[in-house]
Predict the structure.
Amino acid sequence: MIYDTAKNDHGLPRDPFKAIVAPRPIGWITSMSAKGEINLAPYSFFNAVSDAPPIVLFSSEGPKDSLVFVEETKEFVCSLATYDLRAAMVETSAQLARGVNEMERAGLPPAPSRLVRPPRVAASPCALECRLLQIIDLKDLRGEATNRHVVFGQVVGIHIDDRFIRNGRLDTAAMGPLARCGYADYSVVDKVFSIPRPTTDAQTQAAADRTASVV
């Protein structure tokens, strides 16, 4: 099948788009208002876009509390949502009145951050402390506002539970990160495999040159 996204004429009970772009990592975003109110919400439109410097983004559909609070204080924290925390993660997705602390409501103890004001989820094995870089208000092909807003943050501090560092590497599968699929479906990363990248002749020669220079 093929369908026109402008007409949304796929003929299915629900739009399959999110089930195609899947699985998507979940950004479990803690933000703080200028008044000190705490908000915690999961965003599946989330990803890392740079490692030097480390930069992440999340996209808000409408002016949700996370977006508003980040606009006010220019900081946020992304805690890793894991299989063990799946029930609490879903609990924090509820649409609540502004100012309600989802962290408290879901029974999630907070842990203080080091470089930013919003707290992190204490039970999460990893957390990224971020400072706001920019917010982009998305427009469509006709130049019209979409009510979608992309928040870019530079990671200034990273928390890692030492239990998951093995042989000098972070054991992703052991943490069991959650990912969002379509509809109400999720997946968990519990198995990984490695595939070496292909090397070019230039890369092989460069490696040989480095070895020769050491000798």
The longest helix spans residues 201-214. The chain has a mean pLDDT of 94. The two ends are 60 Å apart (CA to CA). The first strand starts at residue 24 and ends at 25.
